[in-house]
Amino acid sequence: MTVNTDGMSAEAIAQAIATLKISALEVTEAALARIAKYDSVLNSFTDVTADRARASARAIDAAMAAGKEVGPLAGVPFAVKNLFDVKGLATRAGSKINRDLKPSPRDATLIERMEAAGAVLVGALNMGEYAYDFTGENIHDGPSRNPHDPTRMSGGSSGGSGSSVGGGLVPIALGSDTNGSIRVPSSFCGIFGLKPTYGRLSRARSFPFVSSFDHLGPFARSVGDLSLAYDAMQGPDADDAACTTRPVEPVTPLLAQDISGLRVAVAGGYFQKNVFPEAVEAVARVAKALNATRTVEIPEAARARAAAYVISTTEGASLHLDRLRQRPNDFDPAVRDRLIAGAMVPAPLVDRAQKFRRWYRAQVLELFRTVDVIIAPATPCIAPKLGQVTFMLDGVELPVRANIGVHTQPISFIGLPVVAVPVPLEPMPIGVQIIAAPWREDIALRVAHALEKMGVAAAPQPRGI
Q1: Which positions ≥6 away from 78 have C-beta within 8 Å?
Q2: Is the entire prediction scored with pTM above 0.85?
Q3: What is the pLDDT of residues 164-176, one digit of tens each?
Q4: Positions marked catalytic
């Protein structure tokens, strides 16, 4: 039997399976068929794990037939950025070099937790090389494409994650965010994305970029689905030193709580510069819906971005020194050259960047004494055209790749939780950051849920496939 699950949320799929209206295998076959039909346009997948997915789905259906408990995501298809270890696959991390690695003997912790909740892994997703990218353009696998206009960027580095969810190939995908790599694809592809607090979700058995501010998190087309995935993945993990003590704090039951008492402010100054009119409009719509009349200045945000660059490029260079020495011609030249530059940054400058980071974190946390949520642009513009090198802003020509993350870097730099919410403008959607204090994902998700209910934030149907 062929079933049509197009447009169904993860919540709806899990409910239909739990009530025996459809089987997990039927859902899996529908997802595999949609990938086969549309991924030739989107190029979001690098590996489709069809045999594994079918085996998982059959096991769920057998458990259901035996009257056993199934998880809250039972039968829900999901996919992961190809820097997650997937048992039986080499962990590419978007690179040519990593394809020579042996197949992973075990899945990443977050895959294990998603499957424990019943979700079905259907594949691994395209990404920018070694996660050092904001565009979604991979020279080895080709670019992942925007589901609303395939001539445009999906965003990076989790480009395949954004493209696959935005295009409806899977209801949930996992990605990583170091400087903006969840929030940028969410913004460009018109979906919801969660960058949790640093240390909230385990990074065990994923390929690193900048360990001191790498995050993993989910993408979805609704806040409910985002929260279900987030709750399934929570919990301490001794295999990740940054994620060893925080208890599980479910947020799904809290989504509908009233937000009228929350203190919401708009990020001013730096966050109102270097933005196109569409980003200004998106923030204004969100601010109006939340009755946010106050503006707060995040101190030294420009310097925070500069320090984030210093730490990113030096930590990344340290990780890749042997590859740079032995196989320099197998890198994307743009990635290779930035890593080489990072290897030459003097140590005293790195030390200054780290000292500034501690000061900056203290200053931003002080803001959360008087506000609960800060809203800011996720990207300065809608998705640029594939291959676009520069854009004009206020009469100044700026490089695209370097400036897409201008508003995300100062936030992930200090590990704050953020939900990127899509504002469905014409001709393309664009995202807004909902930023909360550390460990308050619940607040950011509640605000995102309220915006979704008001119709201000919504994932538009893909128009490019």
Answers
A1: 114, 119, 120, 121, 122, 170, 171, 172, 173, 174, 229
A2: yes
A3: 999 999 999 999 9
A4: 81, 157, 181
